[in-house]
């Protein structure tokens, strides 16, 4: 079988702005991205059937016998077994959602269907990423660490609780840290650094080569993706990777894409003063929709950055490539390629300048801002 993660178009739309720059299956939740989870379960390479402008970076590989899997679905062993048993030209459904289908080509109608009765975690909305992050950290931790031995904690000034639920990969640097895995596991990826005085509560994951700065407070259900630098206080949030929140300030119930930067003492609200349910901008309806949740922070697309002392209101959505500054609370929706100074009006962040900044940011990390990346941002710019 040849495995392909496809974008459910309705779900992809509801996950914007995060899916402007990636297929749905490249969303990080728990320790790994959804695609990395599927590769581990299937022991097979995965390709992507996604938007045309993303297909060059995330190519689809077709064969005579393909299994298309919904990229918003997190795998379980039971689901994997059901997918592997699919007959040709058959789809696996749960209610009206297509979980997977086996076919020579991509399609959306099927004569033969099977209903999957097991439990399925589908990431339908951006807030689902942090809502279910703790659960996915636990699941990933059990699978990734099964049969393996953690590196020892050699620093005599580091305090740890429930050591069996702490796993440290090679090359990790720990100095006078508190690791509290009482309420869930703590996973520390290769080459990660946890600096003096950092306080870590599980469930928590920090991926390879990321840094937690001195005195930082990492609260439960938080994931720091690879090549990030974080400080201050972070709670129940997911940073996809290659982004920085290096200074003091609070981040809570938030999802941050790649190549983002938070200026010093930036804060986001995650709870309204009247404790009412939070509305969030929807790219499906182009209006604010009630999330049904009291705790909603910030959703920020790739390449967006904010200056020092930025204030984000409860339930704010920031698009791709935004430049944000100013002393007032920011608008609750900042469209992609916008400059926002907090007064409710926007200026266009012109593509040429945005590309210059993106190129400089990637080069600092030893990455190339090539023609493929430039084409993706151009396609997004032309959508707005």
TrEMBL record:
UniProt-listed Pfam families: NTP_transf_4
Keywords on record: Acyltransferase, Transferase
GO terms for MF: acyltransferase activity; nucleotidyltransferase activity
Coiled coil: none
UniProt KW Transferase keyword: yes
NCBIfam families given in the database record: alt_bact_glmU
Record-linked PANTHER family: N-ACETYLMURAMATE ALPHA-1-PHOSPHATE URIDYLYLTRANSFERASE, NUCLEOTIDYL TRANSFERASE
Protein name, entry field: UDP-N-acetylglucosamine diphosphorylase/glucosamine-1-phosphate N-acetyltransferase
